[in-house]
Sodium-independent anion transporter (Glutamicibacter ardleyensis), 478 residues
Amino acid sequence: MKTEVLAGLVVALALIPEAIAFSIIAGVDPRIGLFASFTMAVSISFFGGRPAMISAATGAIALVIAPLVASHGVDYFIAAVIMAGIFQVVLALLGVAKLMRFIPRQVMVGFVNALAILIFLSQVPELLGVTWLVYPLVALGLLIVFGLPKLTTAIPAPLVAIVVLTAITVIASLAVPTVGDKGQLPESLPTLFFPDIPLNLETLQVLFPYALAMAFVGLLESLMTAKLVDDVTDTHSNKTRESWGQGAANIITGFFGGMGGCAMIGQTMINVKASGARTRISTFLAGVFLLILVVVLGDVVALIPMAALVAVMIFVSIATFDWHSIRPSTLRMMPKSETTVMLITVAFTVATHNLAIGVGVGVLTAMVLFANRVAHLVTVTRTVEEHFGEKIAKYVVNGELFFASSNDLYTQFNYAEDPQSIVIDMHDSHLWDASTIAALDAITDKYAKYGKNVEITGLNKASAAMRERLGGKLGGGH
């Protein structure tokens, strides 16, 4: 219980400046981001499928939704959050969580590494254009978060770093940037909020693209973060429950005037990896402590130097990065295509600051490279046999036939030189799609133009059924 309580406190302290910063990115009042972090964390602690994972206002959501705030105002913005939550519940019921199985491991590695880089880069502005006193404070904070766990794990090192650095800056009256400089903290509890928008088709057309984008980005980041926590804790989570839980949390957050959000990789790693939390209690308390800190103890929280939080987030970025993936020994052992997928995922995620784009491009790259690799595993062997004085050309096709491999199949036959009878033996192959059926039709049609007979044998049950259903009915591709 002590671990869970202290972890929740550390996460709450780390959430405050980030929630304010993300509110600024979205173009809304800091209170909207802070209230969202409270309602998201508390809601997901009950509804979520991954214990100890932290959900709150995030930069990914802020970037997606910011244009709507600028063009139509806060009411449309909050309505889009509620609609995104509804979309997430629907997607969960449709089984979107099962799509996670199609994300390759190297895309996951690229996702983790990109997040670590983005977490680090988000701290760089806090180190530019500031007084020199910030740098020794950050160095001291890093010394504490890296060194204290070697002496004791009784108290989370990030919490000790925050308390020590705050005490130093207050006692010594050091003029350094603090949490209070980020924006005004709320002085009251969140209340129910109903967006004042016209309920018509035009409004839906405005909200739909933003809500759908927010729903997909939020689910993608949450499900991939959940998978990462599964690996860190060696436990399983319910991805379908997490999906509809995210939707429910966003609906609740919207009706309390929050900006919505999703799982946060940085705060989750603080909770799970740095603080050792494992249950929903830490997630719930992170939200509760956040509200208490900003509403009741706002004056005290405002004194926390940003240097302390920068040190904690740098530690998180270093702990999150998969250093094994870039070791020379690993790179030499790993197939070049796998490394390429990881690097492309990292590059696009960092360049766009959009996890959905980075992961989407990574998965697409993996699919193309896999299809190209599998396409070369198909072989066609030709022999000419003689039966009762008649020559027969026999082709044995070996491998998985789909759009990438079957396109070259047409060129593997000697149409003009073959005898009158041709047998295509497909015992060691499987037909996967219409492209393959069309390729076989093209082969038999080509032989027919030469007045030759073709017999296709050895098709397994599924392949034979597909050919019977589609054979000769696909046209010439026009």
In short: The first helix runs from residue 2 to 26. The chain is about 60% helix and 10% strand. The mean pLDDT is 88. The beta strands are 55-56, 262-263, 379-387, 390-401, 421-431, 453-457.
